[in-house]
Amino acid sequence: MYKAVILILTFLSACSSGPPADLQYIKQARSIAAEWALINNQAKADNLTSTYVVSMHQSLRENLQTAFDSLSDKHSSYGEQMNALLAERADAAPAELRARAEALKRIEDDLESA
Amino acid sequence: MNPLELTLGIMTAVGGFVDISELVFAAKAGSQFGYALIWVFALSTIGIIVFSEMSGRVAAVAKQPVFNLMRHRLGLKLGLVTLAASIVSNLITCAAEIGGVSLILNYLTGAPYALMAVAMTAILVISIWVLPFQWIERVYGLLGLFMIVFAAALVAIHPPWSQIAGGFVPQVPAGLSTKELLTFAYFAVAIISAVMFPYEVYFYSSGGIEEGWGPKDMLTNRLTSILGMALGSLLAISILANSAQLFGPVNVDPEIPGSAALEAAIPFGKWGLILALLGMLFAVAGAAVETCMANAYSIAQFFGWVWGRHKKPWEAPRFTIAWLILFMLALAIVLTGVDVMMLVEFAVLFSILVLPLTYLPLLLLAEDKKYMRQYANGPVAKTLGWIYFAIITAAAIAAVPLFMLTSGGNG
Fold first, then answer.
1. Spatial distance between the Cα atoms of B385 and B330, rounded to a whole number of angstroms
2. Domain-wise residue ranges, chain A
3. Which domains are present in chain B?
4. Distance between CA atoms of B26 and B194, rounded to whole angstroms?
5. 0.95 exceeded by the pTM?
6. Which of A104, B144, B323, B336 is 20 to 30 A from B231, comparing alpha carbons?
C-alpha cells in the first residue's frame, strides 16, 4: 500500500509540466532576486565583507542558473524575467533587483491562485 | 560535580543541535511561516532532552551504548538493517556538514569550495587523532558558542516578543492553501528530524561511556541534557525569529547556508557577520565530528570491536579505520559536487526514517528494572518516552509522502 502511494505520487509529479511544474523554480528565482537585493543593500551600507559578498553572489547566480535550466518553458514571461535576472551585474542596484523579485512574485501569486 | 563536564552537553547542543540542517530549516521556516513553527522546535527539544537523558542514564548504569542494545533487543537481522540505515543516514549528514563547513570557509576566505572541503576534512581528522575526547568537545563546543550572536541580533532588532512567545503555542496558521498546509507539515517533520537526529544520541551515550560515567553522574547527565539542548534550541529559535523578522517581509526564502549569517550582519555590521560565520563554522564542524564518530561508534559497538577515543588510535584499530574511512566517504560525496542543500534535505529525510528504530531499544532498556535497577524510567520518563516514540513514528510515516508532495518543501 505504502509503495503504491509512492509510485502514484512519483508518477503524478513526473507528469506535470508547464507553469505549475515551474512554480517551484519561479519561487526560487523570486527569493534569489530578493536576497541579492538585500545583500547589495547591506554591502552598500558597508555591513558585509567583500569576500562574503563575492561568494554569496556566486552561489546565488549558480542557484539561479540551475533554476532557469530546470524550467520546462524558458520562453514564458517568468523565463524571460529569470533570464534578465541572470544578465544583471553582480553589483546591480538593490531597487532594480527588488523590482525583478516583485515581478516574479506577481507571476507566482497568479499561478498559485489559478 | 565538575562544571567542565557540562561542556559535553554544550557541545552536543551547539555542535549537534545547531548543525547545517538546523541552520537551513530554522531560517527557511521563519521566512515562510513567521513564528508559527517555534512550537515544533520546542516540542522536538523536549524530545531530544528525554532521549539524551535516557541514553546517558543507560550508559551510566547499564554501561551499554545504543548499538549494543540494538543488536540484543532487535536481533541480528533487524539490528543489521537498522545499522545499515543509520550508517547511510549519518554518512549523508556528515557529508552535508562537511559541505556546509566548506561553504562557510568559502564565505570567510574566498578559497575554492572543493579545496576547503579537503582542507577541513584533514583538520577534522587531525583534531580527532591528536586531541583527547574531552578536548575535541571543548574546542568545537566552546568556539561554537560564537553562535550566541544570533540571539544578540534578535534582541538588537527589537522583534515583537509577544508574537514570538505566541509561537510556542502549538498552532497551524489560518488561511493556508492545501499546498501551503502540506509545506507547513513538511517543515514540521523536517524540524523534528533535524532536532532529534539519531547521531546526537549515539554520540552522547558513547561519550558518557568514554568519560566513564557511573550512577554518581546521574545529576550531571540530567543537567547537561536539559541545559545543553535548551541552549541549542534557543539559538535555533533565534535564527528562526530573525528570519521571520528580516527575511520574510522582503520575500527571501534563504536558499543557501550563508544566508543565515546576514541576520547578524544587519544589526551588527561586519563583526556580526564574522562572528556568525565563525560560530556556524565551529558548530557545523563539531556536528561533522559527531556524525562521523557516531557512525564509527555504531559499527564498532554493533560488532563488538574495541572502541573509544580514550584509547590510542592503534589500540582500537578497526574503530580508527572505521572513522577514517567514513570521513573519506563523506568527503568523496562532497567532491562529487552535489548541492549541499540537497544533502541536507536527504539527511533530514533518512534520519527521520531511522529514528523510531533507534529509540525503541533505548526506551525498552531504560524501563527495564533488571538492567537499570532503581534508575529505570519513572512514570514521567516512561510517559514522555512513549509519547515521543509515537510522534517520531508518525513523522517517519509522513516524511516521504510530504517530501514528494512538496518537492522537498519548495512548494
1. 32
2. 19-113
3. 3-168+177-405 (1.20.1740.10)
4. 10
5. no
6. B323
